[in-house]
Amino acid sequence: MAERFIKSNKIRIGDISISYHTKKAKTESTKTIIFLHGFPFNKNMWREQLENLADDVEGIALDIRGHGNSTSGHGFFSIDVFAKDLRVFMEKLEIEQAVLCGISMGGYIALRAYQIFPDKISGLILADTHSKADSNAAKQKRFDSIQAVLNHGRRPFAIGFVENIFASQSIEERPEAVELIKSSIRRNSVNTICATLLGMASRTDTTDVLPTVAVPTLLIRGTADKITALQDMVDMHHALPSASFIELENCGHLPNLENPEHFNKLINDFVARI
Ligand code: MLT
């Protein structure tokens, strides 16, 4: 079973401890791919990807500050802080270069990381994400969500979130994915959920970096994604010098869980070409 090659570890970086899964490569010459989860999930959303990586690829899926089993540290979350955590994490693990695969919030982090330390990034896979900052309306929605979580707790938030996040076909056919996401949301503390909502509301627009991206880039979106608008990804595609954009049918916001077979083939073919 491929599963046994996945190990869980913890590493201290600055004021936090980062929890991560690794799937070691079986060969000597290796490439590294780092998976960045969305909000408010954790590293377990990438298990199927880790399990199906090619033998010459080392895969790492980490819990972003405050999420899953990583600690929160100072508690002042921002996409900028998450990207800087990633840089220190890569330095500590002596990873010279990696492909970053980020979904949604993970994509915001990957793009900010490319702005700060492009030389450590050998490729970008950006799924159901975009480069724009929140509009005023989007910020207000996050502030309303914070109030709702503070007043009513995580459970109703998780239920509403899940209904929005998956394609209806996935809700019927992928109950294990739906359960994984529900339980991931509930495992994060109220503080983490609220601090991350504020962190996303305060993120900077990374559109300026797109024309400078000099590494292979793959954009993926579920055609039934109700959270990341198609136009935002089309705009990002046009601004990138050379990127492929693939849409996955019958998938919502989390195509890696909704159609892992197709998603895995896309990322494996992409990494093989790097
Ligand atoms: C995510 O999945 O990470 C979130 O939907 C991102 C966001 O709310 O902007």
Automatic annotation (TrEMBL):
The UniProt keyword set, sorted, is: Hydrolase
The record's annotation in SUPFAM superfamilies points to:
alpha/beta-Hydrolases
Annotated transmembrane regions: none
Task: Give start and end of each AB hydrolase-1 domain.
Answer: 32-260
* Pfam families reported in the protein's UniProt record: Abhydrolase_1
Which GO molecular function annotations are given, in alphabetical order?
hydrolase activity
PANTHER family (alphabetical): MONOACYLGLYCEROL LIPASE
Q: Supply the name of the protein.
A: Alpha/beta fold hydrolase
Q: Which organism is this protein's natural source?
A: Sphingobacterium suaedae
